[in-house]
Structure formats: C-alpha cells, structure tokens
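Students often ask why we bother encoding 3D structure as a string. The short answer is that it lets us treat folding as translation between two languages. Here is a chain of 97 residues written in the first language.
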Amino acid sequence: MERGSDKHGALRPVRASDGGVPKGMTDQDVELRSEVAQALGKEIYPASGAELVAKALQSSASAPVLDLPKRLPAKESFTNVQDIWTSLGGGVEQHRS
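And here it is in the second language, the structure alphabet:
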C-alpha cells in the first residue's frame, strides 16, 4: 500500500517521521518547512518578504508559519521555500557523496 493511499483505509498525511528525516534537519524543521510551502504555494515566486507575509496572512497560516516570513527583509526577493528557509538559518538536507 502506498503512503497516503486510501485503498485500505482512511487517507492520512505523509509525515517526515514516516520515512526518516534528512541529515541536517530535524523532524520539526521538515514539518514546518512543509507547512510554509503549503501556505505560500508555488505560484507566488519570486516574491519579496512583504509579499510573502501578505500571502501567509491571506492563506490563514498558523502562527508559527506566519512568523517566518515576518522575519524576512521586506524588500529582499526570494525564489522558493528553500531560499526562505536558508535565509532564516534553517537546516537543509545534506547530500550524500
């Protein structure tokens, strides 16, 4: 059965803890970054910090999610969630060599 499939029961969200957490990130990092991505969507980029705050407010983001774009420079441009995350000092996946 695929994760998230409703073939054998109720549909459930896939959590970071279902498949492990990438090196360089915590389970909480993965969950919060995912929530930020969901609240902001893909269509907004590139966007300034001020535009990201407005989008988070429009999407009724939770307080922890809304806090992140509020900490960004209002006039700086961001190209994706990873750009936001690293700008705020968030951990990132470490690629295997």
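Translate back mentally: Confidence is low (pLDDT under 50) at residues 1-5. Keep this in mind for the problem set.
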